[in-house]
């Protein structure tokens, strides 16, 4: 890693058809967001001593760009758009164009310590795509079932057909997810390890493997904050407000929440933990979030340490 003072920060604003970049205040440009345009950008960046690209998560458009930059040996930081917009407001910057955003991203990288992106594991990336498709199908199924309650006879017939099709598609995708995990030795071993905890099923195990590559590599406190189950203080002077969880990876948190509900009932140790918190007067949601955090910490240890064994 070069010293921060020696890093050449480059802001890149990613759109569907174009890439706007800012290498220096008076060194800007743009190129097509296509194979040739991306290769031109890579060649230009490689002329710099220590380039580091700062870009936003752009609804999926950034995936190919980041993958090619990493494959070319360039450092990349992918940041949340909300953080960059808050930085712009702190600067008093209200204008927004692609060129302005590229300059803003460069300044953001210079001022804020960011985590470097790592090349995505192809097996985990494929698993993530399958899980995204499953999530979209389940959302559609929920919408169809909600409409069925108020549908007339003609519409109800069509909705029943659509519901049957969606259920069939969900079963197909779940089978593909299971086969994908079974055919990859690393994913299979980790999935089996995670499901040693009572309350963790195939869906949560697959979700953690797809969306949390940091599992087993960072400490549990950082992992809890990363997922969004760490309570943050809101204190000021003598005012002590209740702590709340926020931010993090919603896809993981939603699945973990449902698993925590099952674990709080059927996992003896977690059920006792939940009841102890309830006996101390904690609200039910607070107790469930604590169970989520406890589950995440234990699962992190399971992956981190092969010799770690769960209490019986």
Give an account of the 3D structure:
By secondary structure, this protein is an alpha/beta fold. It has three domains: about 110 residues, Ribonuclease H-like superfamily/Ribonuclease H (Nucleotidyltransferase, domain 5, 2-Layer Sandwich), CATH 3.30.420.10; about 60 residues; about 100 residues, no CATH class. About 60% of the residues lie in helices and about 15% in strands. It is built from twelve helices and seven strands. Strands 3-2-1-4-5 form a five-stranded mixed beta sheet.
Shape: globular
Provide a count of the helices: 12
Gross CATH architecture of the largest domain? 2-Layer Sandwich
According to CATH, the fold-level topology of the largest domain is: Nucleotidyltransferase, domain 5
Tell me the domain tally. Answer: 3
What is the highest CATH level, the class of the largest domain? Alpha Beta
Mean pLDDT: 91
| N-to-C span | 44 Å
What structural class is derived from the secondary structure elements?
Answer: alpha/beta
Largest sheet: 5 strands, mixed
According to CATH, the homologous superfamily of the largest domain is Ribonuclease H-like superfamily/Ribonuclease H
Write the layout of secondary structure elements.
Blueprint: E1 8-14, E2 18-24, E3 27-32, H1 35-45, E4 51-56, H2 62-71, E5 75-79, H3 81-91, H4 98-111, H5 122-148, H6 153-183, H7 185-194, H8 202-211, H9 220-227, E6 232-236, E7 239-244, H10 250-266, H11 268-279, H12 284-304
Parallel strand pairs: 1-4, 4-5
Antiparallel strand pairs: 1-2, 2-3, 6-7
Helix pairs in contact: 5-6, 5-8, 7-8, 8-10, 9-12, 10-11, 10-12, 11-12
